[in-house]
Amino acid sequence: MILSVGPLRVSWGESGRRRRSPPTLARRSAAYAAAESSLLTSGWDSEPKTPDEEIETTLRRLRARSRERVRNHCYARRFQIMLKTNTVGPQGIQIQVQSTFPDGRLDDALNSVVEAAWRDWSRPENCDVAERYSWRQMQELWITTIARDGECLARLYPDRGPYGLQLQLIDPEMLPVDYNVDALPGGGAIRMGIEIDSVGKPVAYHLRKAAATDRYYTISIAPYERIPARWILHGFVPDAIGQRRGIPWYAAALNEMRHLGGYTEAAVIAARVGAAKGGWLKPTETGEGFVGEDEDEEKRPIIEAEPGTLGELPQGFDVVQFTPEYPRGEFPEFVKAMLRGIASALGVSYTSLANDLENVNYSSARVGVLDERAVFEGLQNSIVEGLCRPVYERWLEIVLLGGLIRIGTERIPIERWQKLRNVSWQGRRWPWVDPLKDAQAATVDIEQGIRSRSEAIRERGRDPDEVWREIAKERDQLQELGLKFPILPGG
What we know:
Shape: extended
Number of strands: 19
């Protein structure tokens, strides 16, 4: 709110002299109500900051609190499980190589060889420097670390393992947020541990040096190892233009999670107190000193109280009962309200996060599920763009140059690299709320020519070529065994 001095008013007194009235204060409102300054908005941000400025001063605190919630809060843990289940799934994000001949036909033999080699590389002993995680587990750790910490790092090690490439997932705390150099030769700089050129492109990452055998990370001042950006994958979901580091996804929900945890704990304690037999002994006029049945550590007399029993009062004492009435009926509604806000901040439905299917019908469940699945499909694309595709293309280049995969005895020429880059990545798909209705809808779409069978199969998380081969193999086996089954519509 802006105050300005209004015009002076002049009046004539009884003596004929002019008398000035005090100036009036005119209130002038801002063009936008949200831009007004007042006591009610005194704590509200009024000066914008750059994304890096906001992140540099808050990232480590947000990350510490986010990690604490994931360790100790059941709904934060639930969200981490939902991420693994819905973005990576039980089979991981799978590759489908789609290289073709000049006439456009799929080169099935070549595609199968490359896919088989990729599956073999995906084993822990082949893809992980420490031989600890499989490729599927790396995908899980990648997305859950990004959610919890805001970002995840992976280092590529060439010339290691049977396929010439292995990975190491790196805790983002190893990339210092407080390491900045304003000017480097050539016009570059270092911002929050990332060396950039004059246009902001990452050139190298400066990671804290820590041996794999160290018991704890050295977070204080430590020497840094400069690793070219070519060998580092830095994954995060950007929220602003120019953002160089990621923010934990729990940032907007941490306060609500903490308050909900404290409220729930207080309600549980109150319920336990209310369920116990409690009260005070009040002496009457005839009461004598009370010695009790036992004494506590501070020598105070106590009476043992057990559920379902009736005790005998000492002579000369009355009981003043303690009967707390909390929690009452407001507890469930308050928890639901808080969880709806938390679910909104995390981009999932309340029903899924809270495991609450009460009062859910087909229509409401479908709307919530479709929105949620769209979020998970977007995150699957983020995993592909940030991890799967760059790792595959680097792996493909190395194995072709090294002649590490062959068709029979013949090496696959490096000239096929460009065509072998043509792949699709198949993420987990989900059964529908009402499978029969959705299957009928898919059948109608196929009959009307607005959807292919392959698309319908991919929506279920399967590889169409694999399904066709499985169907053909099944029919051959049935024919060989002389077995006949009813032919289903469309069969």
